Amino acid sequence: MTYRIQAALLGAALLGAMSAHPAAAETIKIGVILTYSGPMASLGDQIDKGLSLYVKEHEKDLPPGTTVEIVRRDDTGPNPETAKRLAQELITRDHVNFLTGVVWSPNALAIAPLTAEAKVPFIVSNAAAVTVPRLSPYVARVSFTLWEECLPLGQWAASKGGLKKVFIAVSDFAPGHEAAQAFTKGFKDAGGQIVDSVAFPLKDPDFVPFMQRVKDAKPDAVFVFVPSGKQATAVMKAYNDLGMKADGIKIIGPQDIVPDEELPSMGQEPLGVITAGTYSNAAQRPANKAYVAAWTREYGTKTMPGFMSVGGWDSMAAIFSAINATKGHVDGDKVMAVLEGWKNPQSPRGEIMIDPDTRDIVQHIYIRRVEKLGDRLANIEFVTLPMTKDPWKELNPPK
Fold it and tell me: What does the pLDDT read at residue 25?
């Protein structure tokens, strides 16, 4: 057998072997930083359930040969140094292609600058501090800002809600202060008066003495922001125990004070509470009905989806869109080019997009009222403010 024949046969054999064994699958690693333990673990659980459900429902839609690997890390709560360390490890040791999750604004503020140097896209699922996307060109947010919800709520409360005097009571960290500032501007611009304010400690607060101060001031309403979850139930209990509804003091605020998943724990006290928010699991949008059905199939009805779960779901929707658009060959610059201006008309909360100029979310804001729906309480949307941008960024353009 001649050398040329031997070489031809060897080449044919190698070609056949390559055809029988396709190229190795592309694995996209997604680093998820959430609060999985401690008193606020329910918040991380909501986001994790949402993002995990999206992966299960849509992994089949990834490019051929592409899979995702979720690398989870527990920040244990609002601990920026811990969050920063975990992000560094995910970037340098685990070599993740994306970062996502993050309940807490202090944690997101610590993580965001790391992504600029590493060029790792960071898709924020919840943390709402207005400045987060400005800290790195590799940050995009799919959740909300408190300005986006609370400024229009303040306007509505004074102009349509019949409130003249409001007391401000918020948690003592960046989103709490931003919620207070935004509501105050909207309310005062529409003719309302802020009578006083208090700030709750972020960790393990006793709400009763603070709410007693509110009661003693006899306002028309108290505007409350706490970081959702069990704190929302605790503040509602203090409001109930002090008989504030009987005194004619209403309670209003962003969606954090009556999260869907906590309503079953609140008794009948939230009936009539008006909030501004981005999502209710009672909404009749087809995409939301499909989401709730998928959630129930996967997790049952013991815990129902709330707005944080949708933040997890939409984070993965954005990440999967970037993976598909780049055919699985992701890098930071290509991903951000996809995400700047990304639109999703089929989010459970309605149409959303990422503003190409700010990399922050643009979405419908709903004014909602807690009402009886069958045998349960639900947040019923009755006013829609379409495709709302973060007003803080419009009022404070980059210098």
Answer: 59
Please tell me the predicted confidence (pLDDT) of residue 2: 41
Computed from CA positions of residues 322, 288, 264, 304, in that sequence, does the dihedral angle turn out positive or negative? Answer: negative
Fold for domain 26-144+285-359? Rossmann fold (3.40.50)
pTM, two decimal places: 0.92
Chain CA centroid to CA 216, Å: 35
Buried b (16+ CB within 10 A) or exposed e, 260-273: bbbbeebeebbeeb
246 is written with which tokens?
Answer: 């009987």
The predicted pLDDT at position 188 comes to 98
Q: Tokens 């013991």 belong to which residue?
A: 302
Per-residue H/E/C for the chain: CCHHHHHHHHHHHHHHHHHHCCCCCEEEEEEEEECCCCCCHHHHHHHHHHHHHHHHHHHHHCCCCEEEEEEEEECCCCCHHHHHHHHHHHHHCCCCCEEEECCCHHHHHHHHHHHHHHCCCEEECCCCCCCHHHHCCCEEECCCCHHHHHHHHHHHHHHCCCCCEEEEEEECCHHHHHHHHHHHHHHHHCCCEEEEEEEECCCCCCHHHHHHHHHHHCCCEEEEECCCHHHHHHHHHHHHHCCCCCCCCEEEEEHHHCCHHHHHHCCCCCCCCEEEECCCCCCCCHHHHHHHHHHHHHHCCCCCCCHHHHHHHHHHHHHHHHHHHCCCCCCHHHHHHHHCCCEECCCCCCCEEECCCCCCEEEEEEEEEEEEECCEEEEEEEEEEEEECCHHHHHCCCC
Amino acid at 302: K
pLDDT of residue 18: 35
Model pLDDT, residue 204:
84
Instruction: Give me the residue label for tokens 């992994």.
Output: 59
CATH of segment(s) 147-277+365-395? 3.40.50.2300
Q: Pinpoint the residues of the chain covered by CATH 3.40.50.2300.
A: 26-144+285-359, 147-277+365-395
pLDDT along the chain (399 residues), means of 10: 38 36 69 96 97 97 96 97 98 98 98 97 98 98 98 98 98 96 98 97 93 97 95 95 96 97 92 97 98 98 95 98 96 97 97 98 98 95 98 95
